[in-house]
From TrEMBL:
This is ABC-type dipeptide transporter. It is a peripheral membrane protein. It comes from Hahella chejuensis (strain KCTC 2396). Belongs to the ABC transporter superfamily. CDD domains: ABC_NikE_OppD_transporters (cd03257). The keyword Lyase does not apply. The lineage of its organism: Bacteria, Pseudomonadati, Pseudomonadota, Gammaproteobacteria, Oceanospirillales. Residues 4-254 form the ABC transporter domain. It catalyses: a dipeptide(out) + ATP + H2O = a dipeptide(in) + ADP + phosphate + H(+). It is found in: Cell inner membrane.
Amino acid sequence: MALLEVKNLEVKFGLRSGAVTALRDISFTVDRGQRLGIVGESGAGKSVAAFSILNLLSRPGYISSGEINFDGKNLLKMSPDQLRNVRGNRISMIFQDPMMTLNPVLTVGAQMVECLQAHTRVSKEEARKIALEKLKLVQIPSPEKRLDQYPHELSGGMKQRIIIAIALLLNPDIIIADEPTTALDVTIQAEIMDLLLELCKGQNLGLILITHDLGVVSQVTQQMIVMYAGKIIEQGPTKEIINDAQHPYTQGLINALPQQGVPGERLYQIPGAMPPLQRIPKGCAFHPRCAYAQERCEKEQPDFTISGGCRVACHMVEDMIKQANVPASEEK
C-alpha cells in the first residue's frame, strides 16, 4: 500500500455563474522515499492539487469528490483536529514565496519554536535546540546567529533554506514543494534543489515537487505527472517521459526548453494559451493547440492508453499503439 494515494480527485470553484471544475479525475501515489514531479503551464492545476492534499483550499474552492488516503486513512473524512495532526507532523509544505511564508515581525527562532510547541510538548529551550539542529541540517551559515534575526535581514536563498528547515522540524514523511525556487536566481535555485534532493535521499522522505521547469524535474524526481487544464495527460517514470514523451503537449514543453533550441534562432513555443476554466473545450482540452488534432479529438475525451511504462491520454497515441499491435496478415 502506498503511503499517499490520491484517487479520482475532483475540485470545483463555485462562481456566481455556476461551479467550474479545476481538477478532474486526478489519481497518483507516492511511496515512502519516492520523489514525484508535477509539471504544466500556469493554470494547469498543479498548486490546486497540492493544496487539496492537506485540504488547504480556500472558498470558493472545494473538493467535490474523490479520496486522499494517507497511511491507510482518508484525509477528507478527518476532523479539523485529526487533520492538524497530519499537517506539519506527517506531511509538510514548502510554499513558493518565502516572503509570504515567514512572519516579518517575528525572529526566525521564535517562528520555529512556535511551530514546534504547537505540535509537540517540548520546552522553549528544547524547541530552540531542535530548531538549531534543523538550521544546521539545511546548511545555513552561522545558524546560532540566524535564530535571532528577522526575515528582512536574510537573503532570498537563506529564507528558502529556513522554510525547508521549518518543514523538517517535525520529521515528516512527505514534503510538498510548490515552486520552491521561483523567486531565486539560477545559482541559488540549483543549490536549493540539490539540498532538497540530498535531504530526501538521506532521510527517506517522500517529495511532491510542483514546478514548470522540466529541467529540475528530470534531475530530482523519479516519477512525473504532466497536467493540462486540470487533468493528467501523461504519467510515468520521469526518465521515460523526458527521453520519449508521447503526448504532443509534453513534447511541446520539452521542445520549448532553451537547450533544445538552435543558437541564434527563436525558442519554440506551443501556439495558443491554456483555456480558462469556464471555457475548457470539449473532447481533448489540448486539441485547439495541437498540430496532430483530428475530428475525433474535438468531440471525444481521450482515455488513458498504456505506452511503455507510461499512461497517456491521447487519441493519436492510442491509434498508433493499436496499429502497431495489428498483425501483418490483418493489415493486408
